[in-house]
Amino acid sequence: MAGGRPKAELVLTEDERVTLTRWARRPKSSQALALRARIVLGCAEGLTNKDVADRERVTQPTVGKWRRRFVESRLDGLVDDPRPGRPASIATEKIEDVVVTTLEQTPTNATHWSRAKMAERSGLSKSTIGRVWKAFGLQPHRADHYKLSNDPLFTEKVYDIVGLYLDPPEAAVVLCVDEKSQIQALARSQPAFPMMPGMPEKRTHDYVRHGTSSLFAAFNIVDGTVITQMHRHHRAVDFREFLRHIDKQVPADLDVHLVADSYGTHKTPIVQSWLERHPRFHIHFTPTYSSWINQVERWFAELTRELLERGDHHSVHALERDIRAWVADWNTHPKPFIWTKTAEDILSSIARLIQRINGAGH
């Protein structure tokens, strides 16, 4: 062996090879367990730590860790980091059963497992179930939401918009545009109790509605400044008025590239006619169900978190006044969002998601 410390010899029994192969290939296996199994199988093939690390896209120390752990403790060594105190007494088969059941079954009369339900089923303690789930990155209580785009031009639109983000055109401004419609002016039914040491702020759960307003916003991807306008509605004529407002705000010698969703008001004849009369404006539509690619949505999230979630407004006028003040403060020290994902990164990530979804159906 050229250089480095000699590696611990790793030879599998037939039963170990069958188990590791099952863990590595099971479509719904914990990704941590599947990775560890593939590492050990690669080492058993005679590959070097570097070869296995390159194949699995992990570091060499990670490969060395699981090679060593398997040689020392066999299959039990792939379960979790050893802790001080008495040695683990839970059989590998028991842990595998907990992991597989969590991934592939649901309890009676429930949509997902809790520690109590899994403990009752497996005969293990709730704390042990918690440790097993933590070791394999399982969180049955959580669920992320997604919706895949069915846009036939999805790929072309992703390349178009990401190209604007990563390489903005010269003599032009790129603005991410959208409207946050029907923002409610909500007044809590009782005054809030302020935060005190050891006690968070307390607010009533009920409120009185005092009308709505809509915020039109155009987020500059380069410097983070925002052009806004408040309207009581979000109709096509309101969007046209907002385009006129943008036209006045952006220097006349710059082209204007707008990133917008395919919402109906953005494509009406009244808007298209205005765009035709203003050739410096170029609109780029995001794919359907892909609001995540429009950076102004990230800015709306900031506004919601910092102002609207805990806002207390007894009139639409008060709501609009506070929003304008918040926007003015933002523009005194704007924060652009740094976009790093290439179109290829995005498409590859979506392809992996689709593969996982398809695999989960088998």
Report the portion of residues in β strands.
Answer: 5-15%
Largest sheet properties? 5 strands, mixed
Reading side by side through the largest sheet, how are the strands ordered? 3-2-1-4-5
| Net shape | extended
Distance between the termini: 43 Å
CATH structural class of the largest domain: Alpha Beta
Kindly give the count of domains. Answer: 2
CATH architecture of the largest domain: 2-Layer Sandwich
Give the number of helices: 13
Stretches where pLDDT falls below 50 for ≥5 residues? 82-88
Radius of gyration: 28 Å
Structure description:
The chain is of the alpha/beta class and 362 residues long. It folds into two domains: 14-135, no CATH class; 154-192 and 203-344, Ribonuclease H-like superfamily/Ribonuclease H (Nucleotidyltransferase, domain 5, 2-Layer Sandwich), CATH 3.30.420.10. Helices cover 45% and strands 13% of the residues. The protein has 13 helices and five strands. It has helices spanning 14-25, 31-44, 49-56, 60-73, 92-104, 115-122, 126-135, 154-166, 236-249, 269-277, 295-308, 316-332, 343-360, and strands at 172-188, 207-220, 226-231, 255-260, 281-285. The chain has a five-stranded mixed β-sheet. The longest helix is centred in the last third of the chain and has 18 residues, at 343-360. The radius of gyration is 28 Å and the shape is extended.
